[in-house]
């Protein structure tokens, strides 16, 4: 597995194991953008790879910028729910030790919350959307 | 962007006197112009009309994958339409200040969502459209050039360049 895939697997594993996250999205933490998934269900969290670059000296190491999107149903949730999830994701991921030998010897050297985007609303799908960007260095 | 190094900062302040921070601000202005030009270039593509993009199957739709159909390199470049997005673009600098021996100054380019509400949907994506990191990507493209400008003009300072 390439580092990006391993990181996504690990993030999913961490998020679905958390009771607060599970209370909102159950196990719907998608490894890819929801539009690539057949009939995605919401509320959900999804991951997108924004950019990634391999380290020249350590070929198996990658520095990446990922976007974690939180999608909630506007009829059932509020902006405050989005921010509750963002704070929980931050507590679980930001500067945490996420290395995992069970995922192809994943070593996460650094993971930082880089940016919390604006709260957005999509009229056609009636979804609330909060994008969160993380910078990750992993092998 | 932060420039650190208490000893050299102090040395430069003595050398330049009251004009030191003015000089830093001037350099930052130059950096903001470089950033602005790159962002403008990346958000004003005119090689496809709306009709052509539709015929291609909406290349920025996320159903094509996390980078869309990648009709451009880099994939996150944006086509010019009404010009509203370009008009929402602003550049500026954060004036140099020295606190506890550390010099801080900044240069930025931003999109004003009060002028172009759709800007945030382009940058962060939607449930159907890929995110396109236009600002961050543009800064990464000119990072070395900006670093060179800063280094040539503020030599002897130690530097840390942070793109956000």
Characterize the structure shown.
Chain A is an alpha+beta fold. Chain A has one domain (3-138): STM4215-like. Chain A has helices at 3-16, 19-25, 79-93, and strands at residues 29-30, 44-54, 62-73, 108-116, 120-122, 127-138. In chain A, strands 1, 2, 3, 4, 5 and 6 form a six-stranded mixed beta sheet that branches. Chain A starts with a helix and ends with a strand. With 164 residues, chain B is of the alpha+beta class. Chain B has one domain. Chain B has helices at 6-16, 20-42, 50-55, 84-87, 119-124, 134-153; strands at 2-4, 89-99, 102-111, 158-160. Chain B has a four-stranded antiparallel beta sheet with strand order 2-3-1-4. In chain B, a hairpin with a 2-residue loop joins strand 2 (89-99) and strand 3. In chain B, helix 2 packs antiparallel against helix 6 (134-153). The longest helix of chain B is centred in the first third of the chain and has 23 residues, at 20-42. Chain B is elongated, with a radius of gyration of 19 Å. The mean pLDDT of chain B is 84. The A-B interface holds A 32-36, 40, 48-51, 65, 67, 69, 71, 114-115, 117-118, 120, 122, 125, 127, 129, 131 and B 61-63, 65-66, 113, 120-121, 123-131, 133, 136-137, 140, 164.
Q: How many whole angstroms does the radius of gyration of chain A measure?
A: 15 Å
Count of strand segments of chain B: 4
- How are helices and strands ordered from N to C of chain A? HHEEEHEEE
Going by CATH, the architecture of chain A would be 2-Layer Sandwich
N-end to C-end Cα span of chain A: 10 Å
Please give the domain count of chain A.
1
Mean pLDDT of chain A: 93
Number of strands of chain A: 6
Helix content of chain B: 40-55%
Order of helices and strands of chain B: EHHHHEEHHE
Count of discrete structural domains of chain B: 1
Report the principal-axis shape of chain A. elongated
Low-confidence stretches of chain A: none
Q: In angstroms, what is the radius of gyration of chain B?
A: 19 Å
Strand portion of chain B: 15-25%
CATH class of chain A: Alpha Beta
Structural class of chain A: alpha+beta
**Average pLDDT taken over every residue of chain B:** 84
Rounded to the nearest angstrom, the distance between the terminal CA atoms of chain B is: 9 Å
Contiguous helical run count of chain A:
3
